[in-house]
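Example 3.2
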Amino acid sequence: MTDVTRKDFDEVMIPCYNPMAVIPVRGQGARVWDQQDNEYIDFAGGIAVSCLGHCHPIMVEALSEQANKLWHLSNVMTNEPALRLGKKLVQLSFADKVFFANSGAEANEAALKLARRYAADEFGSQKSKIIAFNQGFHGRTFFTVTVGGQAAYSDGFGPKPGDIEHIPYNDIEAFKAAISDETCAVMMEPLQGEGGIISPQPEFAQTVRELCDKHNALLIFDEVQTGNGRTGDFYAYQGLGVTPDILSTAKSLGGGFPIGAMLTTDKLAQHFKVGTHGSTYGGNPLACAVAEAVVNHISQPEVLQGVKDREAIFRAELERINAKYPMFAEFRGKGLLLGAELNDNWKGRARDVLVAAGEEGLLVLVAGANVVRFTPSLVITTEEITQGLKRFEAAVAKLYNA
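Structure, written as tokens:
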């Protein structure tokens, strides 16, 4: 086997990323080990993907069993794992129908296409406007990155898909001014992730739903990051009390195996006829078998309650650390999608915190330049949380006292 190093990334990979020097080679639970056998506690979870940690026995068993049965069929035929997973997702949600894809971006692309097709079929081509929110993130296809409200990700690629308007998140008056009978759909995260871990105000979410109904606009919830137990409800919309028309899910759906899904109602699903949309790998038996095992485990009430219990431990410890080393203005988020916003004295230094944490043997994320993000395994042990936060405290102390 050829030895590889971080230097090889710069030589052979297109430079879309700037990965850390660390190259993990194995993982178990909420811990990973690098090429030099250094151990790290993982509070990043592959960006909210590794919901059962690394190499969880139920995932390994599901993958191994399916790997000895059937790998791929395409959409020319269906398969048992896809059907079982589809039935389970319908049981756990408002939805009647499921479309499988390979990622969150693909699930969102399907959602946006379905919304546009429904509006055109039912109301005419003039009803095409999509409302989305500043600092939103919905994927990297040209359509989804344009709907996402971060120009830095969508500029520089030529003419963009049209009829998309961005407004501030949680701004009721701006939303009232934007929506009309020409609005086809509203796409929003029921808790903004990449945009800084911003929760929706309940009144805002309710108003969005009511005005969508008034103007015959579809409400699309991007639950790519919030879904599959991440917030302590199986889907975040269930904790908000606002039900969307279309929902996208991915990331932790497969616990690390690539899979995405779009969920919707019978009424909307009929607007995707045979050939209207598709995916070569969508509904892949390997992916669906793993996702079925993940969903069966995460959806158990005691596991969802465990997410809420772990959130309380995180918050208490972060507050304790901040009392000693006041670097943070606020801790926010829900469940195990949490953000620590830096105060005015430390603005713009989230990556410095990430790097310092890595030096102490802890993996964390950022959500913009001012927010440190935590998205660990949903079944991380209390011992691993405590030990990880001790490492975080050491990193914060080193920066604070520098």
